[in-house]
Specification:
Rossmann fold; 7-stranded parallel sheet; alpha/beta; globular; single chain; 15 helices; 2 domains
């Protein structure tokens, strides 16, 4: 079996490519991201696309006249289609590669679109509601023509792979054919993300990732500040989206903000936390949650965080409704008043994470490809 993985961006495509290479099933990894664990004959790396995209975005007149992200993906698709020949499966991350899909299907090669987040119509709805409350001048996540292109491509592809039951449910709710959906959750590197001794006794609440309305950062800020815990700290790691800047200013002085931490050093930051929180309105399978669990930290997540498939409510942490600041405050209070509960749930979280390794991911991915080839479903 030989698989082409094509990804305009990183996502988890690089890890899929590495796992396939280890199993002798990778024909080529075509990407804007450089994966140094792959030999040169197994990767085609084109960083110029992202470099040019970032440069043009800084020029306001160009940014306002041209849909740059679409232009970038169209050019990437034009190049990607050249590598389809000789494959058994074509696996596309980040979508918007219609030429590559058409080329594969003309050769009888099955195609998969890897969708890492909710159905675009649902995304627009739930995030649009939040923006209407906190950032009414912000445009929708997707314009109508963006959604139309995505929906056409979902129908065009033979399969759509999703990374959580949350994402799957949003597709089914929009009437998408459930028989075309494949479910495979992501993994974690247990050796890289490991618990080390906490360096102090401060009750520390941590979140990692973009600071945004989508990630529910505003709900976390409100809950933590209203609780007013003595000897406690809220740590936000990540860059703020524009709509979060005025909200962060409202809570200035009540949190510690770190713009970024090298990925290989994150395990220390996780290990210094008492609890990890991610109450997103929409998140397919954010690896930061399972990374925190692997470091022995209990978690609080929302029901719209796809890692709910991993987190056992009341065992490894808690799952709460979206936008429910009251429920978040209750769970934070429980952890603050019960250090033993933090440690107990942290231990079970670590053991739970061990069942979701990248090796397991690779094995299941190969099984999915084998199922697709046996099904004979193409074009």
């Amino acid at each position: 079996m030989q698989v082409l993985i094509s990804s305009c961006g990183r996502f988890h495509s690089h890890q899929a490519a590495v796992e396939l290479y280890r199993r002798g099933a990778l024909k080529l990894y075509f990407s804007t991201y450089m994966e140094r664990r792959l030999p040169s004959d197994k990767i085609r790396h084109i960083p110029l696309i992202d470099t040019l995209h970032r440069g043009l975005r800084k020029i306001s007149i160009v940014r306002n006249m041209i849909p740059l992200n679409l232009l970038k993906k169209e050019f990437f698709d034009h190049l990607a289609q050249r590598y389809v020949d000789g494959c058994d499966v074509v696996h596309l991350h980040s979508a918007l590669q219609p030429k590559t899909i058409q080329r594969a299907q003309s050769l009888g090669i099955p195609t998969i679109i890897d969708r890492g987040t909710a159905h675009p119509i649902y995304q627009n709805k739930v995030l649009g509601e939040e923006r209407a409350r906190f950032a009414p001048t912000q445009p929708p996540i997707y314009r109508p023509d963006d959604i139309e292109r995505q929906l056409e491509e979902f129908e065009m592809a033979d399969w759509v792979m999703v990374n959580s039951s949350y994402v799957r449910d949003t597709f089914v709710a929009q009437g998408f054919d459930s028989k075309k959906l494949l479910l495979l959750s992501q993994g974690v590197d247990i050796s890289a993300f490991r618990p080390v001794k906490k360096r102090d006794k401060v009750f520390r609440v941590l979140t990692v990732g973009l600071l945004s309305l989508q990630k529910g950062t505003h709900c976390l800020l409100q809950a933590f500040c209203e609780l007013g815990f003595p000897d406690a700290e809220l740590v936000l790691v990540g860059a703020p989206r524009p709509e979060m800047v005025p909200i962060l200013a409202q809570y200035e002085g009540s949190f510690t903000h770190i713009h970024g931490i090298p990925h290989e050093e994150l395990y220390r930051t996780y290990s210094d936390a008492s609890v990890f929180v991610l109450t997103s309105l929409n998140d397919g399978f954010p690896n930061v949650v399972i990374e925190a669990m692997a470091c022995g930290v209990p978690v609080i997540i929302s029901e719209n965080v796809g890692v709910r498939d991993v987190v056992r409510d009341g065992v490894d942490g808690f799952v709460i409704p979206i936008r429910d600041v009251g429920a978040l405050k209750e769970r934070l209070m429980l952890f603050y008043e019960s250090p033993d509960l933090c440690q107990q749930m942290g231990r079970t979280a670590r053991e739970r994470a061990k069942a979701f390794t990248w090796e397991r991911f690779g094995d299941h991915l190969l099984q999915i490809y084998q199922f697709i080839l046996l099904s004979g479903k193409t074009g």
